[in-house]
Q: What sequence folds into this?
């Protein structure tokens, strides 16, 4: 009897081993790299390199070990990382058309559905981006200039700082202020700093962005059909986004109820009018779902990057008081104490402009660029990258490239000044990305807001 059970156990165990080896063989064959594919660390069976950290320090170390172009594997998906200014420029500028698509990453596909300003592709993306670019120059109150919204919010922010007593964390106030600037464009109005509901939305969004970087969350991309039913940080992230999207839907509903097509008040009104005009062109993607997700894109990309950049600016000014004094002296000479800064003042304030750009460089707010995907089989740096491969640029390596910056690890406004002390733009200044991308929209918002807040 015992021998019989032992024999059955061995047979069962043997079957499991055979099944495992069979699946392992399929995994190896299925995920075999094509010739001349970028090298990378050996992946684990089935899950790949999903446990490899995606912070920029880890990516920089891997680039040192495997070269400026290397690869990782997420489940069965291959991800290529590109580092260094020359290679990033080659991908994002020289071969712009080859790397123009956005990959369908399961975690973000569940939220953005391949729509909006960031996740869409092709003709739809071009139409959405063109519309957003033309309307981000103005805000509410019957399309007042965007710069005026920044100036007005600066007053509210300074007053809020004055109301604080002793030490305080400016994080939420800065996020609220920047979000209000975007709100003035999108919704046509701002939110009071004591608006509990809006502050909760900002907290949920900050938390969702943080959760998206967790290793446990990234496991969702390996087996989304399974992890849809497994508890974890990814479920909290999805729940946060649902609340945020409900908030945006409510705002859009209010606009639809009070819309006057002959007198659009803001971005949402203009989009609703455009939706009616585009009924005969469904491929352009003008619909309610895209509007909600495009609004989310603007809030996330604009609020987090701009607020974080300003926080870095505050830190650098405290750490380098001699630089702060030079900025203040230039402000006093050009602007004085009786008015707010204008964007028209920028050409006359090269040192302040240089400090803002150096803040963005050293702040390294977006160390990894948004994922892209080749629209066709492509060769980069001698490596073969098949169509559909996820490609991510290591922007941190560009901002700290020793071949491009005289003192890459030091806060040095001189990086952006010529011998005559005039502002000088650097080709390797790519804090958000390069080429014809949504990064230009973010770059304009960050620079305009940072300068006007100076």
A:
């Amino acid at each position: 009897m015992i021998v019989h059970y032992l024999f059955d156990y061995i047979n069962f165990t043997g079957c499991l081993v055979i099944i495992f080896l069979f699946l392992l063989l399929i995994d190896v064959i299925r995920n075999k790299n094509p010739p001349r594919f970028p090298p990378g660390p050996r992946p684990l069976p089935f899950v790949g390199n999903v446990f490899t950290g995606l912070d920029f320090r880890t990516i920089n170390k891997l680039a040192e070990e495997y070269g400026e172009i290397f690869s990782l594997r997420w489940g069965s998906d291959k991800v290529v990382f590109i580092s260094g200014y020359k290679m990033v420029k080659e991908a994002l500028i020289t071969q712009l058309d080859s790397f123009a698509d956005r990959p369908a990453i399961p975690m973000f596909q569940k939220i953005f559905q391949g729509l909006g300003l960031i996740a869409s592709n092709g003709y739809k993306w071009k139409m959405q981006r063109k519309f957003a670019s033309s309307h981000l120059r103005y805000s509410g109150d019957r399309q007042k200039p965007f710069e005026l919204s920044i100036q007005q919010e600066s007053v509210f922010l300074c007053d809020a700082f004055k109301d604080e007593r002793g030490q305080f964390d400016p994080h939420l106030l800065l996020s609220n202020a920047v979000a209000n600037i975007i709100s003035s464009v999108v919704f046509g109005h701002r939110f009071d700093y004591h608006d509990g509901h809006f502050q909760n939305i900002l907290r949920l969004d900050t938390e969702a962005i943080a959760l998206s970087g967790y290793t446990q969350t990234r496991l969702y991309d390996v087996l989304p059909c399974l992890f849809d039913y497994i508890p974890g940080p990814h479920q909290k992230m999805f729940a946060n986004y649902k609340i945020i999207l409900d908030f945006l839907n409510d705002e859009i509903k209010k606009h639809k109820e009070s819309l006057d097509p002959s007198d659009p008040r803001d971005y949402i009104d203009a989009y609703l009018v455009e939706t009616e005009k585009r009924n005969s062109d469904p491929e352009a993607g003008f619909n309610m779902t895209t509007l909600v997700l495009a609004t989310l894109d603007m809030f996330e990309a604009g609020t987090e990057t701009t607020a974080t950049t300003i926080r870095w600016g505050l830190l650098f000014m405290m750490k380098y008081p001699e630089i702060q004094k030079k900025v203040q002296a230039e402000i006093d000479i050009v602007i004085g104490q009786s008015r707010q800064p204008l964007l028209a003042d920028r050409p006359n304030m090269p040192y302040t402009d240089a400090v803002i750009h150096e803040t963005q460089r050293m702040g390294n707010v977006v160390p990894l660029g948004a994922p892209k995907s080749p629209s066709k089989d492509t060769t980069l740096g001698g490596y073969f990258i098949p169509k559909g491969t996820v490609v991510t640029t290591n922007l941190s390596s560009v901002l700290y490239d020793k071949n491009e910056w005289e003192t890459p690890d030091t806060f040095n406004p001189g990086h952006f000044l010529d011998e005559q002390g005039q502002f000088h733009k650097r080709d390797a200044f790519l804090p958000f990305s390069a080429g014809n991308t949504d990064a230009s929209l973010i770059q304009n918002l960050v620079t305009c807001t940072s300068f006007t807040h100076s």
